[in-house]
Amino acid sequence: MFYLSLIEHTLRLPPHLLHLPLDEAIKMELETLFLDKVIAKLGLCISVYDIRSIKGGFIFPGDGASTYTVEFRMIVFRPFVGEIIVAKLKESDANGLHLSLGFFDDIYIPVHLLPSPSRFESYPNNRNQGRWIWDFGEAEEAQSEEPRFVIDGTDLIKFRVHSVIYPSIPLEQPEDSKPFAPMVITGSIDYDGLGPVSWWEEAEMVQDES
Amino acid sequence: MKIKEANAGALTNFEVLDFLRSRGASKDPTRVIVPIAPSEFKVYDYLVESATCNQTKEHINEFLERCKKYKLAKAEVLNIINLRPSALVEIDPIIEQSEKRFGDQLEELVNLVVEVLPEPPTQKTAEEDSNKDKEETTDEKNMDGNETETANNEQIDEHETEQTEDGEQMEVS
Description:
The structure holds two protein chains of two kinds.
Chain A: E1 2-13, H1 22-34, E2 38-39, E3 43-59, E4 66-77, E5 84-93, E6 96-100, E7 107-110, E8 118-122, E9 130-134, H2 138-143, E10 150-151, E11 156-165, E12 184-188, E13 195-196, H3 197-209
Parallel strand pairs in A: 7-12
Antiparallel strand pairs in A: 1-4, 2-3, 3-4, 5-6, 5-11, 6-7, 8-9, 9-10, 11-12, 11-13
Chain B: E1 2-5, E2 10-11, H1 13-22, H2 38-48, H3 57-66, H4 74-83, H5 88-91, H6 98-101, H7 105-116, H8 121-142, H9 145-159, E3 161-163, E4 169-171
Antiparallel strand pairs in B: 3-4
Helix pairs in contact in B: 1-2
């Protein structure tokens, strides 16, 4: 889920930071530049882990700031394909599920990666929103009113990373389109042990009883 | 900007949490004083609710040492440490071709995880609650008719008391 990445960057240190110790000032500037931003093919920058080296300190003509070349390690969030992650449900619509980790929100589980057979049940007041139901053991469910395997956001959801993509920045965006996401994770819950945590807690209890 | 090494080492959730704690992150209301970015706190909030919240270096080193015999892939070990699977159904999606590779050893591996890696508090409370429920149901079954009657009477008495403004219990006749 998290990796260390070694990065070299040439940065301009503004004069108002020069009263601070050099490494502290540079760290502050690096955090301003990188934190909570996605670097394509690298991932979401979480934190500056350490600074390996600081070189330079040149002041270019006509500039009041000194320029340094810094080599540092950054903690990045970059899940690998096949990794299992626990997330919360953010939104559920006819296209699938939208999950969130709190610090990263662009996680989608499309319909074809939901457990099959699944069906979507839209809310009466909002046709676009609803809940997904896994129709497992339909004979038992026919007797009870409420379906057993519902994805409704009360539980944490375990999913497997299916793909991580870094879309290129669009030149133009339609007004009604979603905000641009620089990193999108596609997940799958179509496997035993994946999906809402409570589904499998029930299974464990049944197993223990038998 | 030049990426010199994209993968300079994978980190477990525990290591990231430990790093954030070392910088002063906590659930304390004084978090506003700590020189940590809001985005870092979001990561901290996620990790502190995860299975790694009460792991230590000793736990992880012991697990790494004891799981060597299973010849797990690095990614699988990382996933196990991050998730702490405590049942077969939880470990199954983590390990590729688990039945083929391990067979009966899989249960042994789950037991090792449960034994070595500490149980997160959230899981503990959930299990305690379920145990309490079980105990209550068995107690109810074992009760005699008279006992249930007295229990009901006690409940009625409780409902018939009201509180005065001073907070004292006042009996309503």
